[in-house]
Amino acid sequence: MAKKQFKAESKRLLEMMINSIYTQREIFLRELISNASDAIDKIYYKALTDDQLVFDKENYYVKVAVDKASRTLTLSDTGIGMTKEELENNLGVIAKSGSLAFKNENELKDGHNIIGQFGVGFYSAFMVADVVTVISKALGSDEAFKWESKGADGYNIVPCEKDSVGTEIILKIKENTEDDQYDEYLEEYRLKSIIKKYSDFIRYPIKMDVKGQRPKEDNEDELEEYQEEQTVNSMVPIWRKNKNELTPEDYENFYVEKRYGFDKPIKHIHISADGAVVYNAILFIPENTPFDYYTKEYEKGLELYSNGVLIMNKCADLLPDYFGFVKGMVDSEDLSLNISREMLQHDRQLTLIAKNIKNKIKGQLQSLLKDEREKYDQFYKSFGRQLKYGVYSDYGTHKEVLQDLLMFYSSTEKKLVTLDEYVSRMPEDQKYIYYASGESIDRIEKLPQTELVADKGYEILYFTDDIDEFAIKMIMSYKEKEFKSVSSGDLGIEADDNETDSDAEEKDNKELFDDMKNILTDKVKNVRASKRLKSHPVCLSTEGELTIEMEKILKAMPNSQDVKADKVLEININHDVFKSLKDAYENDKDKLTLYTNLLYNQALLIEGLPISDPVEFTNDICKVMV
Fold this sequence. Notes:
The longest helix has 24 residues, at 348-371. Residues 95-100, 109-118 and 338-343 have low confidence and may be disordered. Strands 5-4-3-6-2-1-7-8 form an eight-stranded mixed β-sheet, with helices on one face. Strands 15-14-17-16-19-18 form a six-stranded mixed β-sheet, sandwiched between helices. A five-stranded mixed β-sheet has the order 9-10-13-11-12, with helices on one face. The protein is 35% helix and 21% strand. With 626 residues, the chain is α+β, with helices and mostly antiparallel strands.
């Protein structure tokens, strides 16, 4: 019989598909097994409407067999089979899917969704095979036919013998090349690993003849090889089981089996949604941060299954970036997939699933925060930074979702507290939520700028992460209370008698402060009497939105611009140092310059800022000592 040619557009599609559509050759096995599962599903569906057809699940399976000598890999199923016309239509015209046509003709509403909807998956076999042979006998037919092709050149269909209903696909595996090792698709362990990875939850058994060793019956000291048929897939995925049947250990074992992490998950979320979109999901909140989590190499996302078949290892569209630490999987029958099943079309179903997952994760975190504080503290230690990045990113778009999950160290509680907890303890006369920024809790506690706020008995939040202030700038206020840095020019604290004296002293000593400002030239925006210092002689405060900590962080970034906070040098007029300043101003201008530079450099050191000329600074100290 003369060879039949693929249609011109089909030939081009086949060549493109073999070379570029699929990024990993191994998925050919997933595609062929999915097609076999579909073929069995079709019999199941027909049995629902045909009283003469009995569906006994024990009789339906997929078999994978290897013959290394002939370099063949055979997949056989006990499904519905294909007639000559169906072989012609389904395999002779690429991208005309029999599964899709069957699905359209029969509205499946019983959960047995047909997986193969595009009709190109079968041709992925040509990525690993020189020759593909299909032998099929259709249900209700006495005839069997063989379809055979070497690829884009065309195909033949001829009658053949086959005893039982179903389909066999025989792949003649390619020879190895310098760049490609095709032998792996003839190795038992490799085939088993591919099946476990992609097709573990196909609802029908996937069988293989597996080799093993066991002691001889007549001599237990010697081993003999044997071969037995084994089912290599799990069939019933954990996410389709009733939650009441599962124990915490079952979820932990699943976490380990799927290699989601080497830690123990803090919490799991099991979702079975049956509404506008139907899907199942199991999500995990990990205990520890992956070593590469805050690098560009880290790839977030959930495993995506369609009807039990793995479609994507990392579907990033199902998770917002700020919940990128969540591990797990989603299985849905409602998603539209593209021809390679490796990318999702962005559709309404995906959006609904992602929105629901986001809400479920937030709800679980809120529950942890409320009912299992120790676990939440443990989670926050690992991933609190990510939540803060989420608040800052996209110009604060997500702050309403995340702000109640944030925690900061409290000066009074000596532990992490939420913004809600802070606000609930605020005295009536407190106008702002006060915070102080620094490299560590110990450094912040020693900052002179905290003195006045702490003396008033107000709680201070300590910001030790480089993202903290940037995130808070996006939130701006919480429950109608604005955030205020202890280094801000105006702390909003009512003046007492001493502070009134400060205002008077500043007016009386305006010329002194002006001289000091001139000595420091453009290093500070102003010099003034401090209303916040109690025991310390000097500190820096800022005017405007950019704080000193933000300046340090921005300057430390690669290719950063030369940004500067508007610094103000504050002098404690009740400190003995101020008396020396006044005396120098009145009697020795050189000494005033010396004292001014010393105080400014001291203020820089307190803030952890670099001194422009350390040698000059040490020389100035020596001058004071002489």
